[in-house]
Amino acid sequence: MQKNISVLAGDGIGPEITTATVKVLKSVNQHFNHALTPTVGLVGGDAYDRYGVHLPEETIALAEKSDAILFGAVGGPVNQPDNPRFKNVEKNVILALRQRFDLFANLRPLKILPIAAAASPLKKKIINGLDILIVRELVSGIYFGPRRQYEENGERVAEDTNRYKAGEIERILRVGFKAAAGRRRKATVVDKANVLETSRLWRSVTEAVKKDFSEVAVEYMYIDNAAMQLVRAPANFDVIITENMFGDILSDLGGAVVGSIGLLPSASLNGRNFGLYEPIHGSAPDIAGKNIANPTAQIFSLALMLRHTFGLEREAEAVEKAVSAAWAKGLKTKDLAAPGEPWLGTKEFGQAVADLI
Ligand code: NAD
């Protein structure tokens, strides 16, 4: 297969984890005889230094010509909010790319990996068998609705508007139900239909769309109960489908439930299977440039790209199995090593995974 991938490494540990992941990509090309060609583009602080903006036209043009984006992370040290290199960088880059490419479907798979099971704050018997896919609507809802602050009778008032069109709900439901059909065939639509009008519209659209996916068992759950169940009985979920803000909160809660932040990938897709693939963690400025970051979340993001944009399931599994094989051989990065245990650098771990494809 011949495809183009734009590689936007960004700030902090972004370049290190991305370089390690590109090694794995090259190994996939070699072993499966593909030409999935990575081309590097600038975003974040380096783009600002060179072009005076965080997301230059050159980078947008590169992304437009490509079939998928492999994204690292953007952002500077959290205690430097006014540093112009990083001011509003997430909004300028990530939100802009989501809108530019209409990346409405955010997929976040959550699994218990043996290596990280001890990092979960929950008891072993509760997380046993946990394998969830959170499907979050990403470009509408309360984060994008009209907002304002004003004065009323001498008091300050603020409003954010939660707004959904039926078509926006339908397309995310279809992504979620399709994914459920290929998994354990259960979908939980999370809402607050006892209070919110938007949730009532979600339910009525769900009732219509689910007819096209008769093999999937669809249930509804209120967001407050879903948060509780994600902690009490997470293994009962298969696919969770929900609106932007509820999905934002549930995916971070789910991330904490499965443990290490360095392991979790995500995909943001549009209706043409074009996607932006990135780890859920940030740019980790505290460990940047030290060759100690864990590139696994980024390597797993590559696996998601192979699966969802290119339809290369065998290759995606080869990448995921190579990571497990590295762990099985006792190869791991610093964040997963017990005190005194030997560990590999970012680069070396990436090379080990590439060699195990
Ligand atoms: P963070 O995820 O960057 O780091 C949180 C903690 O986890 C840090 O201690 C870090 O060292 C550790 N960590 C993160 N990734 C790791 C990895 N791969 N291997 C080992 N350890 C890892 O979150 P933060 O510190 O709150 O944010 C840092 C910067 O990243 C901020 O500027 C923030 O705005 C930005 N950010 C960007 C994105 C994105 O680009 N999508 C997402 C979240 C945060």
SSE arrangement, N to C: EHEHHEHEHEEEHEHEHEHEEHHH
The coarse silhouette is: globular
Attached small molecules: nicotinamide-adenine-dinucleotide
Radius of gyration, taken over Cα atoms and rounded to an integer in Å: 20 Å
Proportion in β-strands = 15-25%
Count of individual beta strands = 12
Structural class: alpha/beta
> What is the residue-mean pLDDT, rounded to a whole number?
96
Break the fold down into its secondary structure elements and pairings:
Blueprint: E1 2-10, H1 14-32, E2 35-40, H2 45-51, H3 57-65, E3 68-73, H4 89-100, E4 105-111, H5 124-127, E5 131-137, E6 147-152, E7 155-160, H6 166-181, E8 186-191, H7 197-209, E9 217-222, H8 223-232, E10 239-242, H9 244-258, E11 265-269, E12 275-279, H10 296-308, H11 313-328, H12 346-356
Parallel strand pairs: 1-2, 1-3, 3-12, 5-10, 8-9, 8-10
Antiparallel strand pairs: 4-5, 4-11, 6-7, 11-12
Helix pairs in contact: 1-10, 1-12, 6-7, 8-9, 10-11, 11-12
This protein binds nicotinamide-adenine-dinucleotide (NAD).
Residues 13, 17, 73-76, 78, 90, 94, 261-262, 278, 281-287, 293-294, 297, 335 line the site of nicotinamide-adenine-dinucleotide (NAD).
Can you describe what's shown?
With 357 residues, the chain is of the alpha/beta class. It is 41% helix and 20% strand. The chain has twelve helices and twelve strands. Helix 1 (14-32) packs parallel to helix 12, helix 6 (166-181) packs across helix 7 and helix 11 (313-328) crosses helix 12. The protein starts with a strand and ends with a helix. The structure holds nicotinamide-adenine-dinucleotide (NAD). Residues 13, 17, 73-76, 78, 90, 94, 261-262, 278, 281-287, 293-294, 297, 335 line the site of nicotinamide-adenine-dinucleotide (NAD).
